[in-house]
Amino acid sequence: MKDFWDISDAELEVMEMLWGQDGSISQPRLLALFEESGKKWKRQTLNTFLIRLEAKGMVRRDHGIVETIHSREEYRYTQMKAAVDSLYDGQISDFILAFTKKNDISKEDAKELIRILENS
Q: CA torsion 82→83→88→92, rounded to 10°?
């Protein structure tokens, strides 16, 4: 797995649409889904994003069929780990401390966090 994916907001939008599908999808169907959601992208615009995502190792394209290589969870984990490594010298405890100081967490969330940590 890669250390970090530098993905633009528009590329992430494409990935989110792809992750919402079951398996692979044709490029024309993908474009139609964006049109249905209110995006007025041209075919070439979507193709440009897909070319970039393919170069970054996020998608695979074969004869107009697109499929993701990495799951949403893999992407989120990689981005989060890169941020913790960069901002908190890899210390997850420092990240959690900083996060909880600035954000109220419910007692239920705190209990769940403790449960997760105890079972790790």
A: -80
CA torsion angle 16 51 70 36 (round to 10): 20
- Per residue in 79-109, pLDDT (tens digit) is 999 999 999 999 988 888 888 887 888 889 8
Task: Please give the model's pTM, rounded to 2 decimal places.
Answer: 0.82
Tell whether the torsion through CA atoms of 52, 68, 19 and 45 is positive or negative.
positive
Q: How far is CA 56 from CA 53, 85, 118, in A?
A: 5, 21, 36
Measure the CA–CA gap between 107 and 69, rounded to whole angstroms.
37
Q: Which helix (H) or strand (E) holds 60?
A: strand 59-62
- The pLDDT of residue 1 is above 60: no
Nearest Cα residue to 52 out of 23, 19, 10: 10
